[in-house]
Amino acid sequence: MDQSISEDELIAVCGKVGKILLTSGAETARVEGTVEYIGRAAHYDITCHATITALFVGVNNQTKTHLVKVRLGDFNLEKVDEINTMSRKFVTGKIDFDELKKTINQIDKKVIDFTWPEKIFGAALVSVAPMLLFKATWADLGLAFFVGIFGYLAAALSSPRIKTPYVSPGLGGFVVGFLAAFLQSMGIATNAGNIIVSALMPLVPGVAITNSFREIIDRNTISGVVRAVDALIIAGSIGAGVVIGASLSGIISHLIGGAL
Prior knowledge:
Subcellular location: Cell membrane
Number of strands: 3
GO cellular component, one term: plasma membrane
Strand content: 5-15%
Order of helices and strands: HHEEEHHHHHHHH
Pfam families: ThrE (PF06738)
Oligomer: single chain
Number of helices: 10
Strand order of the largest sheet: 1-2-3
Structural class: mainly alpha
Family: Belongs to the ThrE exporter (TC 2.A.79) family.
Low-confidence stretches: none
Mean pLDDT: 88
Largest sheet: 3 strands, antiparallel
Helix content: 55-70%
Shape: elongated
Keywords: Cell membrane, Membrane, Transmembrane, Transmembrane helix
């Protein structure tokens, strides 16, 4: 056993590694494996048990256990990749424990995100792709491009300001449903349904749904079910927003038509 690394210090670092991975969207099997690999590389028999809301780290045959409370966060696969890269370097002996600890703290404080133009353009491209399957008109394809941008911006900009969970995706769905239905009622769009389905793609929790199935297949039933329920609630809020937005658009179009 490497006595230069204290047990308490190693457990604290492993706990932080696990927390970053969980809050960044990694599945629980990956979290447990990464933490235990780091422990073995430091010559400690570290054991880890991860759920979607808590992380337990300790040393086998020892009474001390480190508990880390975790809350579901946004997916940040870049942080997951950076943690995995550093853990592999530590396991293979390319960096020492002090370097690992320093880098983990930097990753924890680091804000890893794309620029707004990149995110907006990415949302627009994702919104257009399903229209190719629908064999939609070029006009509808172009409208889906812009409706998807507005829906994504509504969800992204409202998320930091609205503390109530699941409201922001619903607001994005509301904007998409309202714009698509209004454009069709004005005779600008041909098929509002196709535009709605396409423009909702940036809001759909696809990674969460995929990870939930992976968790369940790995028999991490609790974490998988929690992820699945969370994803279903997000999908439900998006659907509710679309229905409300499209209904409101219909009412406004009817009033405008009656006034004319």
